Amino acid sequence: MYNNVGERMSTVVFADLHIHTVYSSDSLIQPKHLVDMLVAHNFIKVAAVTDHDSVRACKATIALASAYSDILIIPGVEISTTAGDMIILGTEELPPKPWSPQEVSDYAKSIDAVSIIAHPYRIYGMGDIARTIKADAIEILNGNSTAAANQQAKQMAKEEKLPGTAGSDAHQISELFNVYNQIQTDLNIDSILHAIRKGLITTKNSEK
């Protein structure tokens, strides 16, 4: 976005970057419910669909959101790697197996997607192994993790000089948007992924 003298103006989007739909066996959120919640929310208008080892919800959710010019769905997936969970943002396809952490990261890079270490200090997280993976970011604020686990993740991201992201990790409607990201970017997927890589992102807890 530019002003009337051609200078680029900073814009901001608010996004939840870790959400599960009914295409994850442990989630109750229908794609339509997710879109309806984005419509109803007063400022969070971007959501990443990151089902467990499945991209089946992405196209349907994107289609539902296409009716609204201010809403954006980022296609993605949460992969159960051999060492722990990783998120890929910007894909409607699964990476080829085997799903080792570095191979998943390399796949994301090859398609200009973003790889994120999910909740490293919680169950199904990879803990300190994450330090050996060339990922784009670390999830430092997970809505289903303890404050201590999130603090450990935040410290690791700082030490590894990687951007930190937030995701509700919602599996039911009441969990949606309990944490979110403020991203300095335009409302399109490529710009958002670029901003995450550049660290133009701030994580936030929702006020209850």
Question: What do these coordinates show?
Answer:
By secondary structure, this protein is α/β, with parallel strands linked by helices. The chain has five helices and nine strands. It has helices at residues 31-40, 58-65, 101-110, 147-160, 189-198; strands at 12-19, 46-49, 72-80, 85-89, 114-117, 137-142, 164-167, 179-184, 201-205. The protein has a nine-stranded mixed beta sheet. A hairpin with a 4-residue loop joins strand 3 and strand 4. Helix 1 packs parallel to helix 2. The protein starts with 11 loop residues before the first strand and ends with a strand.
CA(first)-CA(last) distance: 32 Å
| Main sheet characteristics | 9 strands, mixed
Number of domains: 1
What oligomeric state is this?
single chain
Give the number of helices.
5
Which percent range describes the beta-strand content? 15-25%
Please provide the ordered H/E string of secondary-structure elements: EHEHEEHEEHEEHE
Question: CATH superfamily membership, which one?
Answer: Metal-dependent hydrolases
CATH topology: TIM Barrel
* Structural class computed from helices and strand pairing: alpha/beta
- pLDDT averaged over residues: 95
Q: Percent helix among the residues?
A: 25-40%
CATH hierarchy: architecture: Alpha-Beta Barrel
* Uncertain parts: 1-9
Shape: globular
In the sheet with the most strands, the strands line up as 7-6-5-4-3-2-1-8-9
The CATH C-level name is Alpha Beta
